[in-house]
Amino acid sequence: MNKRKTGAVYEAKAASYLKENGYQILEKNYRCPLGEIDLIAREGRYLVFIEVKYRRTSRLGTGEEAVNIRKQQKILAASRWYLMQHPAGGYCRFDVVAIHGEMIHVIRNAFECR
């Protein structure tokens, strides 16, 4: 399976897991001129921008580690674009869903706006 197909499979798993845990999925694979956001959801009063990272093993690092400062900046830029197009009001948060094999770990508020 190529990277894009693998990503789509695990993004779907992440979306299902999040829905089961109270998130309302609003967008999947949101793309804009400034980048892409895997999932956009609502959880309570928060609009949540979610990056999904899958790792079969941790040999090359964990999924969490892959969301480095450069990746965070791209997500932040895309989230600002989204908010210009869809004024939401309220609070925003950036979560990471790290999938290691079959284990799913949600890191709420994984990083902040900078």
Describe the protein.
- The protein is of the alpha+beta class and 114 residues long.
- It has one domain: Trna Endonuclease, Chain: A, domain 1.
- Helices cover 34% and strands 41% of the residues.
- The protein has 3 helices and 5 strands.
- Strands 1-2-3-4-5 form a 5-stranded mixed β-sheet.
- The protein starts with a helix and ends with a strand.
- The mean pLDDT is 89.
Layout of SSEs?
Layout: H1 3-20, E1 24-32, E2 35-43, E3 46-55, H2 63-66, H3 69-85, E4 91-100, E5 103-111
Parallel strand pairs: 3-4
Antiparallel strand pairs: 1-2, 2-3, 4-5
What can be said about this structure in brief?
With 114 residues, the chain is α+β, with helices and mostly antiparallel strands.
SSE run: HEEEHHEE
- In one word, what is the shape? globular
Number of domains: 1
Q: Distance between the terminal alpha carbons, to the nearest Å?
A: 36 Å
Main sheet: strand order: 1-2-3-4-5
CATH class: Alpha Beta
- Strand-residue fraction? 35-45%
Radius of gyration: 13 Å
The helix content, as a percent range, equals 25-40%
Number of helices: 3
Give the low-confidence spans: none
Average pLDDT works out at 89
Structural class of the secondary elements? alpha+beta
CATH overall fold name: Trna Endonuclease, Chain: A, domain 1
Output the keywords.
114 residues; alpha+beta; Trna Endonuclease, Chain: A, domain 1; 5-stranded mixed beta sheet; 34% helix; 41% strand; globular
